């Protein structure tokens, strides 16, 4: 089932075309990556999906309903965790609910059981500066999840983490997605990360940027031990690098 | 070893003050400077004790003026900062005027205010408001404008209204700036109150100061100077204390 879809999205800034005829979709439970070099227009595309900017042409559909140019429907997470330092983790996590007019106690009741699911037990009353980088990212993910429980737009969320923490967070995130039936659209310029995490990868390139290729990652091969060191992995990597 | 060094560094200012007091007492004791020009620290303390009641009564008046002037100054400073943050053309039009207004010394405006508003409390409060609102307005504006654009972006994706953006992000984000400006403003408030009392008034530490100066009671003059300085320090400490209470995340850093 298609959860999120963009149809013929184009965007021009000061007569400079940035995006042209972008058609992508995200199925229920999938993790789909958008790969492209820096400055290609990945974030512009996410801003359009999140409703922050209007496209020149095309529309964004969530479960078949147009959410073009509407904020408050879908949220995303950036490389920076953007946790408010003056609010506790609970205070940060319930922020989307508060923005939507939900009462504080009600929002806290909804968020409380999710702390365990996200591996954030006993951090509710702590301030963000008391948490490690990985834990802060988890808290930011929980905040994103509190906002939209079906789709998460992640804009290079793991790029600030060190390699070891990044691997741990990758595994944790894939497990979490299965547990809570979350679908994810991920922006990354890390080819390895895209191959390891994704079910499908869209390659964005050109001026204006278009989707030049859609690559399906074999789910069964991904389950193999040391997939990252396998010839299949390298084949995917070579194919993607050639396209970029 | 490091701790020992830190302790020594913290004690240094107090040691320096004690040394300076001893030197000052020595200068007076050996009459290197006539005592009517430079009374000894001991005679200043004696003058303070002898005139304690009068000093406190006058300090009460000065503090009351400072309180009202500061309150109005802070509120108007915050409001002006919000308006300038919301409307960029207004910011561009008003900001240079604000800066120019601050180049006029308080001593120059005080007589005019006395002329317009009389010898009561009003001209003092007006002068304090004028001198205290500027640091608050400028710092708050700087706080609002230094908010991480990505954070504003994120709040917008959540559908935050303009007021929710101020309430949840811009105001808390500006608290450090606010308290920094408040520390400046509290000392400005006391100094401005005293200056306006010099120019004209019935009571207050400035009025007391002009009276003891005219009677050549320099020991009392020094006593009131130290009292004014002490009051400013106390208020700055009070602001720091409130800041720590209101911003626990700053003190809870790992």
UniProtKB/TrEMBL annotation, chain A:
Pfam families: ABC_tran. The keyword Transcription does not apply. InterPro entries: AAA+_ATPase, ABC_transporter-like_ATP-bd, ABC_transporter-like_CS, ABC_transporter_ATP-bind, P-loop_NTPase. Coiled coil: none annotated. Signal peptide: none annotated. Residues 4-231 form the ABC transporter domain. Keywords: ATP-binding, Nucleotide-binding, Transport. It comes from the Bacteria. GO terms for molecular function: ATP binding; ATP hydrolysis activity. This is Peptide ABC transporter ATPase.
TrEMBL record, chain B:
One of its GO terms (cellular component) is plasma membrane. It is a multi-pass membrane protein. It is found in: Cell membrane. Its main location: membrane. Pfam families: BPD_transp_1. GO terms for biological process: transmembrane transport. The chain crosses the membrane at residues 7-27, 66-87, 94-119, 125-144, 188-209, 221-242. Residues 59-243 form the ABC transmembrane type-1 domain. Keywords: Cell membrane, Membrane, Transmembrane, Transmembrane helix, Transport. InterPro entries: MetI-like, MetI-like_sf. Belongs to the binding-protein-dependent transport system permease family. This is ABC-type nitrate sulfonate bicarbonate transport system, permease component.
């Amino acid at each position: 089932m298609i959860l999120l879809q963009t149809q013929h999205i184009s965007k021009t800034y000061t007569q400079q075309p940035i995006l042209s005829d972008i058609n992508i979709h995200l199925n229920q439970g999938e993790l789909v990556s958008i790969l492209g070099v820096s400055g290609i227009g990945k974030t512009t595309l996410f801003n359009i999906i999140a409703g922050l900017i209007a496209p020149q042409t095309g529309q964004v559909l969530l479960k078949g309903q147009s959410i073009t140019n509407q904020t408050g429907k879908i949220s995303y997470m950036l490389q920076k965790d953007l946790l408010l330092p003056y609010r506790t983790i609970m205070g940060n996590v319930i922020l989307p609910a508060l923005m939507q007019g939900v009462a504080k106690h009600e929002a806290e009741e909804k968020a409380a059981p999710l702390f365990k699911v996200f591996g954030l037990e006993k951090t509710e009353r702590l301030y963000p500066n008391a948490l490690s980088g990985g834990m802060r990212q988890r808290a930011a993910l929980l905040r994103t999840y509190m906002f939209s429980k079906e789709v998460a737009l992640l804009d290079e969320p793991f790029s600030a983490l060190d390699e070891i923490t990044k691997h741990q967070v990758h595994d944790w995130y894939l497990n979490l997605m299965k547990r809570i039936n979350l679908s994810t659209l991920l922006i990354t310029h890390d080819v390895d990360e895209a191959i390891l995490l994704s079910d499908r990868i869209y390659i964005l390139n050109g001026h204006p940027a278009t989707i030049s290729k859609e690559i399906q990652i074999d789910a069964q091969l991904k389950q193999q031990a040391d997939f990252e060191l396998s010839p299949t992995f390298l084949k995917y990597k070579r194919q993607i690098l050639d396209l970029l | 070893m490091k701790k020992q060094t830190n302790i020594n560094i913290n004690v240094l200012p107090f040691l320096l003050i004690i040394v300076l007091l001893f030197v000052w007492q020595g200068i007076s004791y050996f009459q290197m400077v006539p005592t009517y020009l430079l009374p000894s620290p001991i005679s200043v303390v004696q003058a303070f004790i002898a005139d304690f009641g009068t000093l406190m009564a006058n300090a009460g008046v000065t503090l009351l003026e400072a309180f009202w002037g500061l309150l109005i100054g802070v509120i108007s400073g915050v409001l002006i900062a919000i308006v300038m943050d919301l409307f960029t053309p207004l910011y561009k039009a008003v900001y240079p005027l604000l800066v120019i207004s601050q180049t006029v010394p308080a001593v120059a405006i005080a007589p005019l205010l006395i002329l317009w508003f009389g010898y009561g409390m009003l001209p003092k409060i007006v002068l304090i408001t004028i001198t205290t609102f500027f640091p608050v307005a400028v710092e708050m504006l700087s706080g609002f404008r230094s908010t991480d654009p990505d954070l504003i972006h994120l709040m917008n994706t959540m559908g935050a209204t303009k007021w929710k953006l101020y309430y949840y992000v811009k105001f808390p984000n500006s608290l450090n700036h606010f308290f920094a400006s408040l520390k400046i403003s509290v000392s400005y408030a006391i100094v401005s109150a005293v200056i306006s009392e010099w120019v004209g008034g019935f009571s207050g530490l400035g009025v007391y100061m002009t009276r003891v100066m005219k009677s050549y009671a320099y020991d009392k003059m020094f006593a009131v100077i130290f009292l004014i300085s002490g009051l400013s320090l106390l208020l700055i400490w009070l602001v720091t204390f409130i800041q720590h209470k209101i911003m626990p995340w700053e003190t809870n850093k790992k």
